[in-house]
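worker-03 picked up job from queue 'complexes'. Input manifest follows; four sequence lines, order preserved.
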Amino acid sequence: MKNTFGNSLSVTLFGESHGEAIGCVIDGISPGTEIDKGFIASQMEKRKGVNALSTARRERDEVKILSGVFEGRATGTPICLMIENADTKSKDYSKSKDLARPSHADYTAECKYGGFQDYRGGGHFSGRLTAPLVAAGAIALKALESKGIKIATHISRCGDIEDREFVAYEEDFALLEKLDMPVLCEKKREEISALIEECKKDGDSIGGVLSTAVIGVPAGVGEPWFDTVESMLSHALFSVPAVKGVEFGSGFAFGKMKGSEANDSFYCDAGTVRTKTNNNGGINGGITNGMPVTFRCAVKPTPSIYKKQETVNFKDMTDETILIEGRHDPAIIHRARVVIDSVTALALCDLLIGHFGTDYFKP
Amino acid sequence: MKNTFGNSLSVTLFGESHGEAIGCVIDGISPGTEIDKGFIASQMEKRKGVNALSTARRERDEVKILSGVFEGRATGTPICLMIENADTKSKDYSKSKDLARPSHADYTAECKYGGFQDYRGGGHFSGRLTAPLVAAGAIALKALESKGIKIATHISRCGDIEDREFVAYEEDFALLEKLDMPVLCEKKREEISALIEECKKDGDSIGGVLSTAVIGVPAGVGEPWFDTVESMLSHALFSVPAVKGVEFGSGFAFGKMKGSEANDSFYCDAGTVRTKTNNNGGINGGITNGMPVTFRCAVKPTPSIYKKQETVNFKDMTDETILIEGRHDPAIIHRARVVIDSVTALALCDLLIGHFGTDYFKP
Amino acid sequence: MKNTFGNSLSVTLFGESHGEAIGCVIDGISPGTEIDKGFIASQMEKRKGVNALSTARRERDEVKILSGVFEGRATGTPICLMIENADTKSKDYSKSKDLARPSHADYTAECKYGGFQDYRGGGHFSGRLTAPLVAAGAIALKALESKGIKIATHISRCGDIEDREFVAYEEDFALLEKLDMPVLCEKKREEISALIEECKKDGDSIGGVLSTAVIGVPAGVGEPWFDTVESMLSHALFSVPAVKGVEFGSGFAFGKMKGSEANDSFYCDAGTVRTKTNNNGGINGGITNGMPVTFRCAVKPTPSIYKKQETVNFKDMTDETILIEGRHDPAIIHRARVVIDSVTALALCDLLIGHFGTDYFKP
Amino acid sequence: MKNTFGNSLSVTLFGESHGEAIGCVIDGISPGTEIDKGFIASQMEKRKGVNALSTARRERDEVKILSGVFEGRATGTPICLMIENADTKSKDYSKSKDLARPSHADYTAECKYGGFQDYRGGGHFSGRLTAPLVAAGAIALKALESKGIKIATHISRCGDIEDREFVAYEEDFALLEKLDMPVLCEKKREEISALIEECKKDGDSIGGVLSTAVIGVPAGVGEPWFDTVESMLSHALFSVPAVKGVEFGSGFAFGKMKGSEANDSFYCDAGTVRTKTNNNGGINGGITNGMPVTFRCAVKPTPSIYKKQETVNFKDMTDETILIEGRHDPAIIHRARVVIDSVTALALCDLLIGHFGTDYFKP
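worker-03 finished. Artifact:
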């Protein structure tokens, strides 16, 4: 439903990069769910990324809770989270408003909104809108944690550098918690940081792949058709700007595999059914099987680069060149991971509350 | 919404592999939309795939239109499509109902439905349920065609064999129309057929990757957040059984790219804005830009193989081995392409009717 | 969502009066819910009404369950119910297709569907479409009964004749169960029957008011805004053709009341909170309070009467007169009660499953 | 969907009486729709009602537009409207938090939210939440006006005093525009004011009935089943606190009518189809017929009265008496009319945008 995601737990996003405020409304979280303002703030910090490698725009990003929380807990009614925009250098944008920045949404916004869009700093399309998503996600992540469900994401690829995969989930998750640059292998972490730094110097940007695992999800959640776990998660994940690919379990590697290699054998483990491999990423027939839910997201390079690019003026319909000014990130992959965790948490809460009822997270 | 997809055009799927009938209800197609029974039938045929390489279950798959069509055209009210099940060897399944076939949904169905699921032949999870999707998709494809929008899918990978990419869309689309084994390059077509044949002999199966293009989509359709074109399409695509990955444009290859390589430059072409490359797959900021919408789907190997596999009896909670009997496909990739086209068409119709109103396809 | 109602339990309706079949798809009923075919059949009979007073169209109305039921119980996947149309005298309708029958939907159908509607016998607008609603409702009613929730409806007014209100719910409900003409007071029952009979003789029709009570609904269900119990029930009730008014508790009588008369005092009754009066019809702030949910529906007289009426030919845009032929009811109020019970049951199941989760009715 | 209403145009409501702020998010209004801050402010004033007869709580109710509006027009992206709470005497409420005020939602909130609700001043249930609805409605009303669609509401009954019905819509609408006490007949206006004044002196309250007309709605909007115009409007109307009955056209009076009296004859009027009477309130078969859409809402007396009432302490489960302190209205009927107009406008915009597409109101 347009700027709303979810059925049983819904999130409605609002705001523009240079408007009064950005924010979201979360509706359906169980009454009594603890709201940890400190955790929200720490997630907001994580989203900002490593100083040296991230955007020069420095917002305080203080999350104001306007409703739905009373005495530190969710009331069960809609929670509105608001972040005021402070550092909005609006004058930068007016002169180039009819120039389509390549791979940005300027041209498509013009097509959709017919000239009425707020063009300043990407308007409603700005990556800045992920801030309220992260705030909402922080609430969902804490709720999931209260049920033993945890989510973590690392950079599995950046350029030609590949990180190792998850080995021991709990340990790896704890490690990632501490890192600004979420790469499991220390050596690769430095290499990736160096690569991004190099792109920055070159006025260029770089893409990557994020790898996510969710542990503790109960078996039996999801729907066989349309609202499969993969459908619901990908729906949420593909609304994160820059995500252009999502694969579950072995994903595209299935294209090379035989059934005899790909199938995950079941076995009994102390009264629980488990699989020996997890090529299906914890999902069979659209429904969780109790194994870790695993997926990877392809993240494209930040489209804003400090290089002259060919484009059009879509009002005059003329070919032009553009040199984008202002602040931008050489990579967003290290910042995007917290957004991925957030939308994953929100989508999972929606599925769980839909399945178990509105009081699922009630203490 | 569970077994329903879409807002402005919705599809609700019903049926089990060995029940009375399978089918779907399509609600919201513009009144006056032509309903071409011959085309529906030909799509049903295409879904069955190449005889030699496909399942031994031979259903007539005659699509009965129960409602919503009058004098050859959509009335604008819900269309119910029904396919009666005839060839249902139910006795095959009862004895093994508590054995979880690896990578199938038997175990997750048990977790979700608590023993009440129809376990015969995969029940509601059966790939057979794609038949009504294809029938519904045929209506959507014809509606899109009336607006100059066309969709085609080829196998871009099967095992280690890779097909060439689309070059001239119209020509390639026409070629694919005629093929049972949808591979653009003739030589690769034979290789892939041979590979699947070999897997069949070996009692094994093989996965692949499908590559889809949609041409003629107007610019300006989709939403910036949550209901992005990628979100809506992936939501539909991931409900196709066996699809485990979806990437748009350059997708996972973005992970290795720099912004200067990845960005699609705009230019003016006879009064139309176009891009020189199409790494973004025709979508910027979640909204179509008028270029072809392109994506790839990873399809896992058919889980049913003629080899002994390790598994559990989930009622007794014991480790067991299973040798799956009955009919199954050594690959579904060549059959899945028509399902991919169908759900893509349905999702696009939903977006277009949502944007342009209920009479969009009215003659 | 157009022809679909409900979020957690949804019903999608399809069919036309003179098409192949009519039916619906119910998605979301808890796995294991007992499906009582005998009860479905008996509800279908009740919907047909008293022979002497009802339509001459005599359909067998055999409900075929196409999916979602296995070994007598709901599987948890979509249930498709289908009723084939047999007795469809289509030739009656073609000649008068551009004449708008007063208070029927012929003209509005033309406006909405632009000439593509199936005009035969009212098409998709036909009261015949309530048959699948009643079949679906029978499943919902039985599910509710398993939780101690019961629904019954009587005629509280027909013309100037008023029935007494509910006194002892259980007894009154048992009485209504047995009646074809659902009037609590025996004398009034005869008077109402006589009035309808008289209208029939006169070629006219008569309206009425239905009064419904639901007992056993747990307290705490519903939402404060938008999805209030009143909103959800009225949404369902106003989709029943001929219903033109819905009031809860004291309803329109509140317009004459003072707060001191209208307020329902609370008291403790053996550990349960109850109210002394029930002017609010069991709902405070959109949420159930544990008291019986009570409401009344205004039902307009059947628009088909055997009298010459003034109208237009909407194709030629000329004033015309019309004398409607064919079979019609002098009143539908006695038949509508089972439809009211049905949609009420479906709406309540939706609210309850949304609140308590998908397994609410699981045995 | 819980605290969200609408499909194509949606409104999500948030806030509590004594929280930081109240507000709503409107998503889907056509890009370019004029946003008239002056009109929003004047509607907010109208909602406050006649000074002498309304609540002593005096909020400035300044509506802040946080997003979705740029250079005085809707951008097409979500509009967040926020009203800060200033005058919140929170100390009044803590001591009586477990006492259920009769006919209020205190007890049902406890049942639903299990003690986590914000109990201060009714929390999320407070009539104060209608303020953002009115602000959102002001945007919708102006959008409708740009298409020649107008809405007005008068008090048709208060106690035993009845106002005359609409005669000349345009004139009557203009008159109502100017009135704080929206009664068409001057004499009745004074009588109703006196009656409310009297109730105030007596520490009591009074209910009433509101009568609404919408003119200029195009024919052909609405759905035959479930999303009938009556269903959509009543869904919205019954979420307005205190509304306990909704009837369209002749409504409950149909219960006494014969078909020959009730049917609205069609005739041609200068190329337009019209009806001689309008007993169906402009709606046939759930779809608009081009005549004025008319309905009435029953509004119960304000439950807060200055009289000792019997109730329970739902924590201790003891019978108690309560004497409600603080500020309350002797009637809300004169204030509610602007809320009725607002939700009607929002529901109609949803139907129209769904039918005609997202650019329906684009200039």
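worker-03 released lock.
Residues 333-356 of chain C form the longest helix (24 residues).
The radius of gyration of chain C is 21 Å.
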